[in-house]
Design brief:
- This protein has helices at about 1-40, 60-85, 95-110, 115-140, 145-165, 165-170, 190-215, 215-225, 230-235, 240-265, 275-285, 290-315, 315-320, 325-330, 330-345, 350-360, 360-375, and strands at about 175, 265.
- The protein is an all-alpha fold.
- The protein has a domain at about 60-290.
- Strands 1-2 form a two-stranded antiparallel ribbon.
- Helix 11 packs across helix 12 (about 290-315).
- The chain is globular and about 65 Å long.
Length: about 375
């Protein structure tokens, strides 16, 4: 009897611990994320170096600009994750809204006396209207047809930017007019402020995407991605929630474009190209399709690789190699493309999939799935 009693007490204690662990699990990622945000927020006041990864100490303007660019690409990847990973809509024109945000803000600041905040609000309003119209047209079709329609709109936007040099700067790009921009966001010495703005934007975008995914509309659009016909049968309207998703993702991309304009002091036509959208897609796949954290880390890793591989390609070490190696390795896109192929082949879940496999929680989920499959067979 005493042995049975002790066993029951141990089982009860174990069950209590397991319940506590299950309650804490949803908060673990948020706690880690909060700690990472705090760490990134303190980087401008720390003397932290990563030779070969960062160009200098974290307080230096060059490093802060690179890190800010990484955070912006992470935010942009999150906006595309909402479109592709959550709603399952493959768009080849997402860069268009990034470009509208950058060019729209730049043109308003250069041709009006509006301050930064009113100009940004006006640009955001214009983007929402444009995204609503384009989305309402594009979402009349699905699948590859939807991708082709978005590509057509992006190409049209790219042509307008390149052919209207008197307004957009054409091939030379648009230079930021700093007359109505706050002094705290202008100049090399204020790069740290732009870095903090980029970090705040990433947090805002992440929270908006998380909120939408857990909202009723988010659940409907996820169900639509899995089986649109079933959603229609139960009386819901997939078109409306898909359009809402499209507009929100476009607005978030435009916000990133505005901060990008401030960080780079201008914008170039590449910002509206389909090639740039493919870059965003590669980032999302690298991070892990369907994972918010994957999109964030994918954006940071890709940007650091892109910038540092450019330096490596122009180094004396590459020049000293035999031509059969030096020629391909001198092209950063070749190296990035090779890494992307390797990720697709050996890490189909991207960075997020690798993290799930190496963490205890991910291994437990995998074991439970394997047990269920064995039981079914």
């Amino acid at each position: 009897m005493s042995i049975d009693t002790d066993t029951r007490e141990e089982n009860a204690e174990y069950g209590t611990v397991q319940k506590l662990i299950r309650r804490l699990k949803p908060w673990t990622a948020w706690i880690v994320g909060g700690a990472l945000v705090l760490f990134f927020a303190l980087l401008p006041v720390l003397n932290f170096s990563l030779p070969g990864v960062l160009p200098g100490p974290t307080y230096s303007p060059g490093t802060l600009q690179l890190l800010a660019l990484s955070l912006l690409f992470a935010s942009l990847a999150l906006s595309y994750h909402l479109l592709f990973g959550t709603a399952g809509m493959l768009s080849f024109g997402h860069a268009l809204y990034f470009a509208i945000g950058a060019y729209g803000l730049g043109m308003i600041l250069g041709n009006t006396s509006l301050g930064l905040v009113p100009a940004a609000a006006l640009t955001l309003g214009a983007v929402i209207i444009i995204a609503y119209v384009i989305g309402a047209i594009s979402l009349r079709v699905t699948g590859i047809s939807f991708a082709m329609v978005t590509l057509a709109f992006a190409q049209a936007g790219s042509v307008l930017i390149r052919r209207n040099a008197e307004v957009t700067g054409g091939e030379e790009g648009l230079t930021l007019n700093i007359t109505n921009v706050p002094e705290a966001l202008v100049g090399v010495l204020n790069t740290k402020n732009l870095y903090w703005v980029s970090l705040v934007l990433l947090v805002v975008v992440f929270l908006v995407v998380t909120w939408f995914e857990h909202s009723r509309a988010g659940h409907v659009v996820t169900a639509t991605r899995e089986n649109e016909l079933r959603v229609r049968v139960i009386g819901l309207r997939p078109f409306v929630v898909k359009l809402i998703t499209f507009v929100i993702a476009s607005a978030l991309a435009a916000l990133v474009g505005m901060v990008y304009l401030l960080l780079q002091s201008g914008a170039t036509p590449r910002a509206s190209s389909a090639d740039f959208t493919l870059t965003i897609l590669v980032i999302v796949v690298l991070g892990g399709v369907g994972s918010r954290w994957g999109a964030v880390f994918g954006g940071i890793v890709y940007t650091l690789l892109d910038q540092r591989l450019t330096s490596l390609a122009n180094s004396e070490f590459i020049d000293s190699l035999p031509p059969v190696l030096a020629i391909p390795l001198s092209e950063p896109l070749f190296i990035l493309g090779t890494l992307f192929i390797l990720v697709v082949l050996f890490l189909p879940g991207g960075i997020a999939g690798l993290a799930r496999r190496v963490t205890p929680r991910g291994r437990n989920v995998k074991d439970e799935r394997a047990a269920l499959e064995e039981a079914d067979s």
